[in-house]
């Protein structure tokens, strides 16, 4: 299923480096709650770069993610409070309730770049952008730069979107 697989919670702390090249499956899977507090991550995967069931909280780190499906996916809450993200994927960020408070994002996706989709019934789908520098390059066709199947709140930050076809 994944190079790193956690059946329960998973926390990645520190300033180390993690390089994963998953020619099949996902790079990292956590079936519960996941927290990342720093470090440098280079993730290449056939499917998802990071996949969690319940929640994912990122407070810092440098992420270079290239994958065939979602770069960062959670069924529940995704909260990003900082970090630098370079993403090439089918979808960039996906979760039911996504909050971006800070960080630098360069997302190049062939489908939706940031997608708040109803994955679980515990939360209403929402995308909250409160800060950060977000640069999006959309793929052609039926794609969305910012996609919320519920609420969309933009309270701050800088967002630049380049669309192939809007």
Explained architecture:
The chain is mostly beta strands and 166 residues long. The chain contains no helices and 21 strands. The strands form 3 sheets. It has a 7-stranded parallel sheet, with no helix packed on it. It is globular, with a radius of gyration of 14 Å. It starts with a strand and ends with a strand.
List the helices and strands and how they pair.
Layout: E1 2-6, E2 10-12, E3 17-22, E4 26-30, E5 33-36, E6 40-45, E7 50-52, E8 55-58, E9 62-67, E10 70-74, E11 77-80, E12 84-89, E13 91-95, E14 97-100, E15 104-109, E16 114-116, E17 126-129, E18 133-138, E19 146-148, E20 151-154, E21 158-162
Parallel strand pairs: 1-4, 2-5, 3-6, 4-7, 5-8, 6-9, 7-10, 8-11, 9-12, 10-13, 11-14, 12-15, 13-16, 14-17, 15-18, 16-19, 17-20, 18-21
* H/E element order: EEEEEEEEEEEEEEEEEEEEE
Number of helices: 0
Spans where pLDDT lies below 50 across 5 or more residues: none
Counting DSSP E segments of at least 2 residues, the number of strands comes to 21
Output the structural class. Answer: mainly beta
* Strand residue percentage: over 45%
Distance between the first and last residues' Cα: 35 Å
Give the neighbour order of strands across the main sheet.
1-4-7-10-13-16-19
| Average pLDDT | 95
What's the alpha carbon Rg, rounded to whole Å? 14 Å
Overall shape: it is: globular
Helix content, binned percent:
under 10%
Largest sheet: 7 strands, parallel
């Amino acid at each position: 299923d994944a190079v790193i697989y956690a059946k329960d919670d998973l926390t990645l702390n520190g300033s180390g480096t993690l390089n994963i090249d998953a020619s099949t499956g996902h790079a990292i899977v956590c079936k519960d709650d996941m927290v990342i507090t720093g470090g440098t991550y280079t993730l290449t995967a056939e499917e998802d770069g990071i996949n969690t069931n319940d929640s994912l909280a990122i407070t810092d780190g440098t992420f270079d993610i290239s994958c065939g499906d979602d770069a960062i996916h959670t069924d529940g809450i995704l909260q990003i409070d900082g970090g630098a993200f370079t993403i090439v994927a089918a979808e960039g960020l996906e979760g039911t309730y996504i909050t971006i408070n800070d960080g630098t994002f360069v997302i190049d996706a062939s489908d939706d770049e940031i997608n708040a989709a109803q994955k679980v019934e515990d939360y209403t789908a929402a995308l909250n952008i409160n800060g950060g520098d977000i640069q999006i390059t959309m793929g052609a066709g039926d794609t969305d730069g910012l996609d919320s199947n519920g609420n969309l709140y933009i309270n701050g930050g800088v967002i630049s979107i380049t669309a192939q076809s809007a």
